[in-house]
Design a protein that fits this description.
heterodimer, B: ABC transporter involved in vitamin B12 uptake, BtuC, globular
Chain lengths: 344, 295
C-alpha cells in the first residue's frame, strides 16, 4: 500500500513538472498560461456535458491501454497502438462492407471480432520479428503506425470510399444504425459493457494467471524466467497478440460507435495517449481506469479548445507529450531532493 | 542517372545529418528516439526565423539553438531524473511535433504552412544538374567524415564509445559517462537542427506541420542499420532516400498501377527490412537490444 501511494506521489510530481514546462511554453508563445489551463480544465471536466464526452474518449483509450499494460509488463515496448487501432477500425469496416445482408447483431459481432483479429495481425509481425531475430520492436511498431495511416487513407479514398461523401476528409459510407453499438455520443450499454469486460479480463490475466505473473517477471528478468522453464517466445508473442487485439477492439469500437463510419485519420493521438495512460498508471489495470478518465477529459478538451475557447488544440498534444517526457522519471537531481531520513 | 544521384542526395541529406546525431548518441549509450522531434523543431525554427528576420544564417542558428535546447532537456530527463530513454525520447518527439504545431498556430493564427523568403544557398546554374544542391548537401560528406574522425580517431571519441559500451571502463580512465552523454547529445542537437533546417530550407522553403513524416525515426533506424558507424549510417539513410525516389519514379512510369499511398509506404517498409537484416546479421540475441537501451 505504501509503495503504491509513493508511486502515485511520484506520478503526480512529474505530471506537475510537465505542466510547468507546458506553462512556460504557453507564456513564451504569447498566451496566458493560467487562462490556457483554465480552458483545458473547462473543456475536460467542467463545461456542460464534459463528463459524458470524457467517458466517450476514455472507453476506447482504456481498452487500448490494457493491451499496452500487458505488453510493457512483459518487457516489450509495443508502441504501435495507433497502427493496431487503425487496423481494428479497418477490420470492422471491412466486415460490415462484406456482410450486407446478414442480421444486424451477427454483423456487429463479426465486425468486433474482425477488428480484434486485424489489430492482432498488426502486432503479430513486429512481435514475430522481435522474438525470432531480435529486431527492435520500437522501430518496427512505429513504422507499422505510418504504414497503417497510409493504408487507411488508401481504403477510405479507394475501395471503401463513400460515393456520396464530398467533405475534405474521406470516409467509408455510414454504417446502418442497427449495426452500430452507440449513437454519435459514443456512450452506450454496449460500449460500457465491452470496456468493463476488457478491464476485468485483463486484470485477471495480469494478476491471477500464470501468463500474467510470468510475463511480469519476464519484463524484469527474462533470463531467470527462461531458467525456470517458461517459454519466453510464447509469452512474448502472446503479449504482442493481446495488445494488438485490444487496440483493434478499441478501433472497432470507435468505428461501430461514435464515428459510425471509417474516417481517414480518425483519433490521431489515440495510440500515444493509450501508452501514456498505461505508464502514468504504473502499468496497473485498476489504476488506469482513473488515469483513462483523466486523459479522456484531455482528449475531449482538444475538441473544445479551438471551437469554444479559440485556442490551438495542439496545446493538448503538448501537455500529453510533456507528461510522456517526464512520467518514467524515477529520481530527482540531488539539489532538489529532500534530505534522506535514516532507514529504520 | 545524374537525376537519381541529385534526388537521392537531396532527400538523403537531412536524414544523414540527423543520423549523425543518432550515431553520437548511440555511441554514448543513449537510444535517441527524440530525433524526430529535434528534426521537426529544426525544420520549423529555421523557416520561422528566416521568415521573421529575412536572414537564412539566423534561421540556421535558430534551428540549432532550439534543437540543442531540446537535447539538453532530454539529457536532463534521462540522466538526472533517470527516466526511461525510450519513453522520454518519444515524449520529446511528441513535444517537438505538438510544440511546432502549437507555435505555428500561435504566431501565424491558422494552421498550415509557413513560407520562408529564401532558402539555403545552392551551387547555382554554373554547375549544371548539380546546381540545385545546397551548401548543406555539399558539406554533408565532410560532416560524415568529421563525425567518423571524432568517433574513431580521437581520444574523445574513444571515451564516448566506452561510455556507451562499458561505462565502468570509461569511468576507470577518468571519463564521466554522464558528461560524455551530455556532450554527445548537444553535438547531436546541432547536427539534428541542421538536418531539420535542410529538410525545409533546402527544398521548397516551406514548413508545414508534421512534415518530417517519420524521417527522424528513419534516421534512427539508419543508425541501427549502419551498426552505429557514421559511414554505414549515412549509406543506410541514402538507401532509404533511394527507395523513396524509386517509388516516386515508379508512380511517374506506371501511373495508376502504382497507387500513391502504397508508394509512400515503401520507405517505411524498407526501414523495417533494414533493421530486420541488421538484427539477423548481429546474430539476433533476444536480449541484446534491451540491455543497451534500458541501461
Amino acid at each position: 500500500m505504501r509503495a503504491r501511494l509513493l508511486a502515485v506521489g511520484w506520478a503526480m510530481a512529474f505530471i506537475a513538472l510537465a505542466l510547468i514546462l507546458c506553462g512556460i511554453i504557453f507564456q513564451a508563445s504569447g498566451f496566458s498560461a493560467p487562462d490556457m489551463f483554465a480552458s483545458i480544465l473547462d473543456g475536460a471536466f467542467l463545461s456542460d456535458g464534459a463528463l459524458l464526452h470524457d467517458l466517450r474518449w476514455a472507453c476506447p483509450l482504456f481498452v487500448s491501454a490494457t493491451g499496452v499494460i500487458v505488453a510493457f509488463r512483459c518487457g516489450y515496448f509495443n508502441v504501435g497502438t495507433q497502427g493496431q487501432f487503425y487496423l481494428g477500425g479497418i477490420g470492422a469496416a471491412v466486415a460490415v462492407a462484406m456482410l450486407p445482408h446478414a442480421p444486424a447483431v451477427l454483423v456487429t459481432l463479426a465486425a468486433i471480432l474482425a477488428g480484434m483479429a486485424f489489430g492482432a495481425l498488426w502486432a503479430f509481425w513486429p512481435g514475430w520479428l522481435r522474438i525470432r531475430s531480435g529486431t527492435d520492436e520500437v522501430i518496427t511498431t512505429l513504422m507499422g503506425n505510418f504504414i497503417a495511416v497510409l493504408l487507411l487513407v488508401w481504403l477510405t479514398s479507394g475501395p471503401l470510399k463513400d460515393p456520396a461523401g464530398s467533405g475534405q476528409v474521406t470516409s467509408s459510407p455510414p454504417i446502418p444504425a442497427a449495426i452500430r453499438i452507440s449513437t454519435d455520443t459514443g456512450v452506450s450499454g454496449w460500449i460500457i459493457a465491452l470496456t468493463v469486460l476488457v478491464g476485468v479480463v485483463t486484470w485477471i490475466l495480469v494478476n491471477r494467471t500464470a501468463f500474467g505473473v510470468l510475463g511480469g517477471l519476464a519484463g524484469r528478468n527474462p533470463v531467470m524466467v527462461t531458467w525456470q522453464g517458461a517459454r519466453l517466445s510464447r509469452l512474448g508473442l502472446g503479449a504482442f497478440l493481446f495488445s494488438g487485439a485490444t487496440a483493434g477492439l478499441a478501433g472497432a469500437m470507435e468505428v461501430l460507435g461514435p464515428d459510425g463510419r471509417l474516417v481517414s485519420g480518425f483519433s490521431p493521438g489515440h495510440g500515444f495517449t493509450a501508452v501514456l495512460i498505461a505508464l502514468v498508471a504504473n502499468l496497473s489495470v485498476s489504476g488506469s481506469v482513473v488515469v483513462a478518465l483523466f486523459f479522456g477529459g484531455l482528449a475531449s478538451a482538444s475538441l473544445y479548445l479551438p471551437v469554444i475557447a479559440g485556442l490551438p488544440s495542439a496545446a493538448i498534444d503538448m501537455v500529453n507529450a510533456a507528461i510522456a517526457l517526464f512520467i518514467t522519471a524515477r529520481s530527482l537531481p540531488a539539489w532538489l531532493r529532500l534530505p534522506k531520513r535514516n532507514r529504520s | 542517372m545524374i537525376d537519381l544521384i541529385v534526388a537521392v542526395l537531396r532527400t538523403g541529406t537531412p536524414m544523414i545529418y540527423v543520423a549523425m546525431a543518432g550515431v553520437l548518441a548511440q555511441r554514448a549509450g543513449v537510444w535517441n528516439l527524440g530525433l524526430e522531434g529535434l528534426m521537426i523543431t529544426g525544420a520549423c525554427a529555421s523557416v520561422v526565423v528566416t521568415e521573421q528576420t529575412g536572414s537564412v544564417a539566423l534561421g540556421l542558428a535558430g534551428a540549432i539553438a532550439f534543437s540543442v535546447l531540446l537535447s539538453a532537456l532530454l539529457w536532463l530527463v534521462i540522466e538526472k531524473l533517470k527516466a526511461n530513454p525510450i519513453i522520454a525520447g518519444l515524449g520529446l518527439t511528441g513535444l517537438g511535433l505538438g510544440g511546432t504545431d502549437f507555435g505555428i498556430q500561435a504566431v501565424y493564427g491558422s494552421e498550415g504552412a509557413v513560407t520562408a523568403p529564401a532558402g539555403i544557398p545552392t551551387l547555382g546554374p554554373g554547375f549544371g544538374p548539380f546546381g540545385v544542391l545546397d551548401l548543406l548537401v555539399i558539406a554533408m560528406p565532410v560532416m560524415v567524415f568529421a563525425v567518423w574522425f571524432l568517433c574513431r580517431r580521437t581520444r574523445f571519441g574513444l571515451r564516448l564509445t566506452a561510455s556507451g559500451e562499458h561505462p565502468f571502463a570509461a569511468r576507470s580512465v577518468g571519463a564521466d559517462p554522464a558528461r560524455m552523454r551530455l556532450i554527445a547529445l548537444l553535438l547531436g542537437g546541432v547536427l539534428a537542427g541542421l538536418g531539420g533546417a535542410d529538410l525545409s530550407l533546402g527544398g521548397l522553403d516551406i514548413f508545414s506541420t508534421g512534415m518530417t513524416a517519420g524521417r527522424g525515426f528513419m534516421a534512427f533506424s539508419a543508425v541501427i542499420f549502419g551498426a552505429g558507424h557514421p559511414v554505414g549510417a549515412a549509406f543506410a539513410a541514402l538507401f532509404f532516400a533511394l527507395v523513396e525516389f524509386l517509388g516516386i519514379k515508379a508512380q511517374l512510369v506506371f501511373g495508376e498501377n502504382a497507387p500513391r499511398d502504397f508508394v509512400l509506404m515503401l520507405p517505411y517498409i524498407a526501414t523495417v527490412l533494414g533493421i530486420w537484416i541488421s538484427a539477423r546479421l548481429r546474430g539476433g540475441a533476444l536480449l541484446s537490444a534491451t540491455e543497451m537501451r534500458d541501461g
